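Re: [ENG-882] Designed sequences occasionally contain unexpected residues at chain ends

Forwarding the minimal case from QA. Structure tokens:
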């Protein structure tokens, strides 16, 4: 996906044109539900960093993404963050590491700009369809994330699954239907009708998140890291 296409996509999310508002109103709900047990209460500081927040409002954070577009405070590459070392008390890295070419280098940069005693929240897909931004390189398990952080002076303090096995089944069902559908209009129709039909199933994950086997086909995983003093 090129920069122009990405910018157009984010502009449509915030656009107040009637066609875009109608499209958003008619779009089916997301085929996933967040794990209510995922921790959210690690402390914020004066300076906090959000990686990958284009098109969102992330109050209390410096919002960094690859391209200058809606909601982005700083456009930069995660391989070389343009900040001094130890600046941020908390860092959110939300569905970014699958897109970078060198995840180890990106993680070293996260550790470098994180203050000693600060926290980094890293979320990545495991069982999830291909999605370019502008490229898509890899998937992660919790074990993989843990190893990635431990090599950079980061200690895992909490881990789990943000979105579960039902989300995995639904996103793949939608993508499969769009492969079978003819043309752009057919793909849009498949997403619309199947999305509205299937989305109530997503609430099964509120139960399945409690199963120790849910991670075998989990959708997105997370690890909270603390930087060593």
């Amino acid at each position: 996906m090129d920069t122009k296409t990405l910018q157009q996509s984010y502009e449509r999310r915030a656009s107040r044109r009637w066609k875009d508002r109608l499209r958003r109103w008619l779009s089916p709900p997301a085929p996933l539900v967040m794990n209510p047990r995922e921790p959210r209460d690690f402390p914020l500081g004066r300076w906090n960093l959000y990686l990958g927040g284009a098109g969102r409002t992330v109050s209390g954070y410096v919002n960094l993404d690859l391209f200058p577009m809606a909601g982005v405070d700083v456009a930069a590459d995660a391989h070389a963050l343009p900040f001094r070392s130890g600046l941020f008390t908390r860092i959110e890295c939300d569905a970014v590491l699958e897109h970078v070419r060198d995840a180890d280098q990106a993680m070293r940069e996260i550790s470098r700009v994180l203050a000693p005693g600060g926290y980094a929240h890293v979320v990545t897909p495991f069982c999830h369809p291909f999605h370019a931004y502008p490229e898509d390189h890899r998937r992660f398990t919790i074990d993989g994330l843990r190893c990635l952080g431990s090599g950079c002076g980061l200690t895992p303090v909490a881990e789990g699954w943000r979105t579960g096995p039902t989300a995995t089944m639904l996103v793949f069902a939608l993508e499969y239907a769009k492969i079978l559908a003819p043309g752009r209009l057919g793909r849009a129709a498949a997403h619309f009708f199947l999305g509205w039909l299937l989305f109530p199933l997503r609430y099964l994950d509120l139960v399945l998140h409690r199963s120790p086997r849910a991670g075998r086909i989990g959708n997105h995983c997370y690890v909270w890291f603390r930087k060593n003093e």
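QA comment: On inspection the terminal residues look reasonable. The mean pLDDT is 91. Proposing we downgrade this to a documentation issue.
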